[in-house]
């Protein structure tokens, strides 16, 4: 993936450049927590076939794959995009996986679904 620099206020850059952390001190805690968030998104969006959606580079997705909304992690940030004719357009960039997931579910479900954060607690490190 090619990366480019954009201009943002210093406080934004400082926040976005911090590494992701998890309350657990396990070495893979961040990755395990994010995998749970992907699964929670999938659970919240079950049964929604339109618009199409894709989470974590096709780990979880709607039945079709025609110009989906997408949610992906790139480094320590979470991107929400819309794909059209093979080109992705950024809709939002988040530092926090929970905020990104809430927004993504709201966007795809048109405000009709929410994440049940009490599910899959056994996946937390």
Fold blueprint:
Layout: H1 10-17, H2 29-45, E1 53-55, E2 60-61, E3 69-74, E4 77-84, E5 87-94, H3 97-109
Helix pairs in contact: 2-3
In short:
This protein has 125 residues and is an alpha+beta fold.
Order of helices and strands: HHEEEEEH
Give the low-pLDDT segments: none
**Mean of residue pLDDT?**
92
The dominant shape is: globular
Order of strands across the main sheet: 2-1-3-4-5
Structural class by secondary-structure content? alpha+beta
What percent of the residues sit in helical stretches (DSSP H or I)?
A: 25-40%
Which radius of gyration do the C-alpha atoms yield? 15 Å
Describe the largest sheet.
5 strands, mixed
Distinct helical segment count: 3
Q: How many distinct folded domains? A: 1
What is the tally of beta strands? 5
Q: Please, could you describe this protein's structure?
A:
The chain is of the alpha+beta class. It has one domain. It has 3 helices and 5 strands; from the N terminus they run H-H-E-E-E-E-E-H. The chain has helices spanning 10-17, 29-45, 97-109; strands at residues 53-55, 60-61, 69-74, 77-84, 87-94. A 5-stranded mixed beta sheet has the order 2-1-3-4-5, covered by helices on one side. The two termini are 29 Å apart. The model has no long low-confidence stretch (mean pLDDT 92).
């Amino acid at each position: 993936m090619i990366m480019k620099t954009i201009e943002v206020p210093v406080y934004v850059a400082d926040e976005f450049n911090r590494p992701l952390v998890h309350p657990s001190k396990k070495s893979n805690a961040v990755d395990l927590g994010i995998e749970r968030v992907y699964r929670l998104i999938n659970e919240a969006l079950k049964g929604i076939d339109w618009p199409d959606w894709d989470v974590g580079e096709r780990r979880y997705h709607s039945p079709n794959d025609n110009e989906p909304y997408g949610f992906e992690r790139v480094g320590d940030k979470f991107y929400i995009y819309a794909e059209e004719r093979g080109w992705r357009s950024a809709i939002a960039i988040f530092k926090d996986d929970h905020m990104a997931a809430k927004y993504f579910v709201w966007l795809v479900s048109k405000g009709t679904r929410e994440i049940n954060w009490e599910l899959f607690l056994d996946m937390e490190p």
